[in-house]
Specification:
Length: 509
């Protein structure tokens, strides 16, 4: 299949979108507020993380309060939206902001943090123009330039894929961007092959225990997924386009020993010129979740299942268990409520009662597929108000006993958007261990870092949290097997970072 055929099959040719207008006073109001000594209102907690973000954070050395374990040496790379305002133009949705990649080098008893904006084509054009020129995922600008291809909107802001000397900044709907892993300088757009140039490369690649990499791409409205089969170092072995019913927004997937697993939700899409992309997405109440098992050997769909509708961004691990296949799912609140909640959080508005109540629907569950009877069912896992699943990556695709997630305590003020607790489920004990940051913190993803040579689930959880009352970010390290004891070491940065999405830890050689 040549590039034109691949693009055509994904519906990427002839893409166009429209124009509209926006400015915003909210950001300047927030800046004014931040300059007073008044305590920050909880509804401003989330959005205040995007205030006063520099173009880059120069290398900053900070001590941990206790020495790190000798095996925990390496670099945590993280990505997330950082630029939410440019000139008079303001983004309204968390997902819109231009991406900034951070590296946290952990050695002995100190950390070196640095961060740089990913120099995407969009960022460079808009920096020169002094304003946002194109729509964001959730923001429609009345005078936006037309979108001729997905990369026109590429903000490279979701996650990272470290590949030796480089780290890729990943978005979802377009290309990955190459960064120098040491300096975080942007090296250019990643082209895996001429055929896949500009094709969506999603933000949650999965790695088999042997280092084999898998990923996928999609385009809303196309009814197709493209599968990437890659080596550990990122060379493309094969691509395959498959048909699927629901491919309007596909954020994550999973792999098992034999299968690539897609859990596709009934998100509808209506191409329009007068609203943001997020507002073009809807929900088919009568639709089903479609689950596809793609044979890793042939890249063809081998099994299809259906489940009643639910919405989720992220999956934990998945594995085959005899004739069954299990998938851990971080079920979210429904798409519409989630989308409104994010916009309210960015705007510093109080959430509505419906949004608050919908948070209880953000549970974790396990989908169980019976490969013999072709039936699917789900069971609830003991997490609620939960997101950002993390597990031992050495056992990706194979049964794991432990699953960690961010959760939200009942006493966290409703006005605060996000999570304030680390929770870890142990299947053997059938118990959940929790540790709660104070209610003045919004916790970010905590990644699992395995202890060399130790059993599954033995290692550390490493993650950042934003102290919104004091406008500071901390990085904490937990013994994954004793989360309830609190961090074994903490490092308080002298500044705050914008609330981001995902990261990966690379152990030092
Ligand atoms: Fe994600």
């Amino acid at each position: 299949m040549n590039r034109r055929q691949l693009l055509k099959s994904l519906g990427l040719l002839g893409l166009n979108a429209g124009i509209a207008s926006n400015t915003a006073a909210f950001a300047s109001e927030l800046v004014k507020l931040s300059k007073t000594n008044a305590p920050l209102s909880p509804e401003l907690a989330f959005s205040s993380s995007f205030l006063s973000i520099p173009e880059s954070y120069e290398p900053t050395r900070v001590k941990f309060d206790r020495a790190l374990p000798s095996d925990l040496r390496g670099t945590l790379f993280r990505n997330g939206p950082a630029k939410m305002q440019r000139g008079d133009t303001q983004y309204h949705h968390w997902f819109d902001g231009d991406g900034m990649v951070h590296s946290f080098d952990l050695h002995g008893s100190e950390l070196v943090h640095r961060a740089k904006m990913v120099q995407t084509t969009k960022l460079i054009e808009e920096k020169s123009a002094g304003r946002f020129l194109r729509d964001g995922f959730g923001t429609h600008l009345s005078d936006a330039l037309p979108v001729l291809k997905p990369d026109d909107l590429n903000v490279a802001n979701i996650s990272v894929l470290p590949l030796g000397e480089e780290v890729l900044a990943l978005w979802e709907a377009g290309s990955a961007w190459r960064l120098d892993a040491k300096t975080l300088d942007t090296l250019g757009r990643k082209v895996f092959s001429p055929e896949t140039d500009g094709v969506s490369f999603s933000a949650h690649p999965r790695m088999d225990p042997d280092g084999h990499l898998w990923n996928f791409g999609y385009l809303s409205g196309a009814g197709k997924l493209v599968i990437y089969d890659m080596s550990a170092t990122g060379e493309l072995n094969r691509t395959q386009v498959i048909d699927a019913t629901h491919t309007n927004m596909v954020h994550d997937f999973a792999v098992t020993e034999r299968f690539i697993v897609f859990v596709l939700m009934p998100i509808t899409f209506e191409g329009r010129h007068d609203v943001s992309f997020a507002d073009m997405l809807g929900w088919d109440e009568d639709g089903s979740v479609e689950i596809l098992l793609v044979d890793k050997a042939t890249l063809n769909v081998q099994h299809r299942f259906e489940l009643p509708p639910f919405f989720a961004f992220h999956f934990g691990n998945a594995w085959e268990d005899g004739k069954q296949l299990r998938i851990e799912v971080a079920t979210s609140e429904p798409w519409k409520e989630f989308n409104t909640s994010v916009k309210n959080a960015v705007a510093g508005k109080l959430p509505t009662r419906a949004e608050i109540e919908s948070r209880d629907l953000a549970k974790a569950q396990e989908i169980i597929l019976d490969l013999d009877t072709k039936t699917a069912r789900s069971e609830t896992l003991p997490f609620s108000r939960a997101e950002f699943p993390s597990f031992d990556p050495r056992f990706a695709g194979y049964r794991t006993q432990s699953l960690s997630m961010l959760t939200r305590t009942q006493d966290l003020p409703d006005a605060v958007f996000g999570f304030n607790q680390i929770s870890r489920f142990d299947r053997k004990q059938d118990s959940v261990a929790n540790w709660t940051y104070g209610n003045n913190f919004i916790a970010e993803e905590h990644v699992f870092v395995p202890k060399t040579g130790a059993k599954e689930g033995s290692g550390w959880l490493v993650g950042t949290a934003f102290d919104w009352e004091n406008s500071k970010t901390t990085l904490s390290v937990f013994n994954a097997e004793a989360v309830q004891d609190g961090p074994i070491s903490t490092c308080n940065l002298p500044y705050h970072l914008p609330l981001g999405f995902h990261g990966k830890f690379v152990k030092a050689a």
